[in-house]
Amino acid sequence: MIMRNSELIMVVLLLAVLSFCRTNSLACNEREKHALLRFKQSLTDPANRLSSWSLTEGCCGWAGVRCDNVSGRVFELHLSNPEDSGTSTLVGKLSPALLELEHLKFLNLSLNDFRGTPIPSFLGSMSSLTYLNLWGASFGGLVPHQLGNLSSLRNLYLGGNPGLYVDNFSWISLLSSLESLDLGWIDLHRDIHGLDYVSLLSSLSELYLPHCQLNNMISSQGYVNFTHSLTVLSLPSNNFSNNMPNWLFNLSSLLVLDLSDNALVGQIHSTISNLHNLNYLNLSVNMLIGRIPESLGQLKHLEILSIFSNFLCGPIIPYQLGNLSFLSYLDLRRNKLNGPIPSQLGNLSSLSYLFLYDNELNGTLPRNLGLLSNLVALSIGNNSIEGTILEVNFAKLSKLKFLVMLMYLTSIVFNVSHNWIPPFQLQHIFLSGCKLGPKFPAWLQTQRFLQTLTLHNVGIVGTVPKWFWMWASNIQTIYLGYNQISGNLSHVLINSTIFHADSNRFVGQLPHLSPNVVLFSIANNSLSGQISSLCQKMNERSKLRILDLSNNALSGELGHCLMRWQSLTHLNLGSNNLSVEIPESIGSLFSLKTLHLHNNSFSGGIPLSLNKCTVLGLIDFAENKLTGNIPSWIGERPLLMIIRLRSNEFFGDIPQQICRLSSLIILDLANNRISGSIPRCLNNISAMATIPSAIDDKFSTLKFSIYLGYQGSYLGYRENLVLVVKGRKSTYNNILPLVRIVDLSCNNLSGGIPIEISSLFGLQSLNLSRNHLMGRIPENIGGMKYLESLDLSNNHLSGEIPQSITNLTFLSYLDLSYNNLSRRIPSSTQLQSFNPLDFIGNPELCGAPLLKNCTENEGPQGDENVEGSERSWFYIGAATGFIVGFWGLCGALLCKRAWRHAYFKFLNNIKDRIYVATALKWSWLPDHFRRYHMISLGCLRGCNQEGREERGNGES
Questions:
Q1: Does residue 60 register a pLDDT over 80?
Q2: Of 198, 206, 216, nearest to 182 (Cα)?
Q3: How confident is the model at residue 934 (pLDDT cuts 50, 70, 90)?
């Protein structure tokens, strides 16, 4: 028996050798050989992949060339770039010499670099081709219609070339033999009938059209007539915004259906059960609503089901999903599913990945999930699941590698014994909001292959065990923030790529950092000593990019060891006891993007060398003892978005160059000794003159994130800043990119408020209080419609409050106290709702909310101006009329003697008439009064007589 097997092996080897020898000894067609050499000349081959292509060798033995065993004619070219070698691409353009390969059936040029050149139309003349693969080969321009002439073509792969587009897709219907088509990332939106033409391919089995900018799955005919031979339909990342069309559910032969990353609406139709052969279904990242249909449980062959990031609601259907015995991947993340996790999920014996993260699930974790012996990943975070997790919940999870339980609203309590040895070997642990403590979990030391350890806010109290630091030295990411973990770090060596332990109780000096550390954050602890303890020599160059030591008790000088951290992009040493001057060596951190040195005791000026940090986006030197002028070079940092220098001893003028900072969103120079006037050019800061937007990605240059190697998970470092807004300190982090603030308060600024400042339409907080500003409040201040806080108190501003201030509908904080403002406060529901103290100290100011009422003369200045203007014109007109009338009459009398005699004669006649009328009136008055007196006495006697008669009647 052994002899027979050995003889069989020898025969097989002999045949293989003979076949190889025959292949190499095949006579290559000379014409085709020279055609291939001309094809080679049109390409650049940096890796010498085509070095075997020479005149001395037969072309049938060349790399990538396959010849027919009988005729010796070239029928296959395998010139795809190996995926694991990015330096071995063939570069250039396709030569028409390929047309001489008349028997060529197979052409694979994928993953090379043809520099955006068009696909040559002569390929349409290579009628023998059955396989054409140009995927990801950097072609561009119009896909030639001539490809429709390749009637024998069975496989066409043009995808992965984003520069290609199709204007008329009708030619695709001519490829009657086509079985597999991939046009991913090609722009197909110019032809609305694209799917109609593709559906005419009667032999088509696989269709891949991702990222093709298709707009509609419903054709002009109301349906798409795909054949029943279609097994793969992949249409992700298009622009579909309609319901799932009915024709989809007639494709009973489908094995793969991918409609992810579109904008599909409506519900998942119950007729999806017609796709009974389906083993892959991806409807993720759409806008689907409603419940998961029960009919989904009839897809007995389903292996992968992904419906994450939709708006599905209701419970997870227990019985139906429990029937999917082949299901290995279930992803229902980021929906609105509610109710308990069904215990029937424990019947899915093939399940390897279960993602239920970010729903509205409640209840407890079913114990029989611990029976899923094939489970590799379990993610149930950000739900309302509570209760106790016991060892039995993990009883048979021997293959578990990923455990994600990020609980923000409710708590899960781990109740396992101190000596528990888990059945699994995890690679990634993400636990947050769970109660894992109070003791440090001892079972962690049994995990030998851990790459990520996240124990955020899990209630651990007490000292780190001795075994931890040695055990953790090979873990890439460690996140222990927001616990009450204590321990002395003076002699600890940190080797993890990411180490984050904010808000704990660590003491001692700073630990030693290996060159491998990229992010080290240990803010808000009780570390002491000097920062120079981090300055030990390293054999390798440090990779440190993020260093956050804020809110500790570090002291001494900053020192010159900064020069060893050349890779630093984010440095936060705020809220410590650091002193002396900021060293000039800080200018050697050329990659620095954010620099926080606030709340220390630094003295001296801002070092000149800092102007070498050309990518600085944030400077926070607040609450120190810094002095000198604000350097003018600060306006030459175009990426600078935040300047916070408040509570120092800076003096001199605000440099005009600061107006060049078009990306500036926060300017805080409060509480210094700055003098001069407010620059009139502040309106050039375009970031403050435009409306803040969440999609504005300028602030993204200050962000830092690192991939954790699991499910697209990234760990980011967020900038945070303490700002004084609306009279109180607040910490800003997530919304910091949307904040727009100017604070120049508590300085010695003089002059007026420039009218240009009212052009900062996006500004949310403006504080100019406690200066020596004079003049009026700008009339157009109402144009700053997003202003929420305005403080102009304790200045020498005069005049009335502009009427336009009533347009500030977002205004919730206003302080105009202690100025020389006058007249009535403009009427609006908003202004009258403020506290009277916000207007106090303006003696001439009146109206609500002040108790002082306004008189008529204290009306709005705008009305007074109009009235005063009208009164002035009245007086001018009256005076002019008097002068013209007076001199017109007198001039005529002086010039005409006859007119003068007639005039005075007329006056004498008038005088005589008045005298006679007066004399007669005086003679008539005594008789009139005497008659009136007699009538009055008669009336009085009559009244008295009537009174006596009434009293007599009453007595009787």
A1: yes
A2: 206
A3: very low
Identify the burial level of 88 via C-beta atoms within 10 angstroms of its C-beta, where 0-12 means exposed, 13-18 middle and 19 or more buried: middle
pLDDT tens figures, 770-782: 999 999 999 999 9
The stretches of 94-223 forming alpha helices (DSSP H) are: 194-198
Nearest partner of 452 among 426, 471, 487, 482, judged by Cα = 426
CA atoms within 13 A on the CB side of 219: 16
* CA neighbours closer than 13 Å in the CB half-sphere of residue 684: 11
By C-alpha distance, which of 379, 297, 295 is closest to 332?
A: 379
Q: Where are the alpha helices (DSSP H) in 809-895?
A: 861-895
What is the rounded CA–CA span in Å between residue 476 and residue 472?
9
Query: What is d(CA 525, CA 504) in angstroms, rounded to the nearest whole number?
Result: 5
DSSP-derived letter for residue 389 is E
Amino acid occupying residue 79 = L
CA distance 31 to 555: 81
Cβ-contact 236, 259 below 8 angstroms: yes
Map tokens 């992810």 to a residue: 260
d(CA 78, CA 160) in angstroms, rounded, equals 18
Buried b / exposed e along 386-418 (16+ C-beta atoms within 10 A): eeebbbebbebbeebbbbbbbbeeeebebebee
Q: CA–CA separation, 89 vs 566, rounded Å?
A: 34
- Separation CA 659–CA 653 (nearest Å): 13
Neighbours of 308 (CB within 10 A): 22
d(CA 483, CA 463): 11
Q: 481: helix, coil or strand?
A: coil
764-767 contact pairs (CB < 8 A, 24+): 764/692, 764/739, 764/740, 764/788, 764/789, 764/810, 765/725, 765/726, 765/740, 765/741, 765/789, 765/790, 766/741, 766/742, 766/790, 766/791, 767/670, 767/724, 767/742, 767/743, 767/791
User: Which pairing describes strands 577-581 and 601-604: parallel, antiparallel, or unpaired?
Assistant: parallel
Separation of first and last alpha carbons in the chain: 161
**pLDDT digit string, tens, across residues 18-56:** 344 444 456 788 999 999 999 999 999 998 999 999 988
The string over 881-899, giving b where at least 16 C-beta atoms fall within 10 Å of a residue's C-beta and e elsewhere, is eeeeeeeeeeeeeeeeeee
Q: What are phi and psi of 474, to 5 degrees?
A: -105, 5
Q: Single out the residue of 359, 379, 380, 272 nearest to residue 313, CA to CA.
A: 359
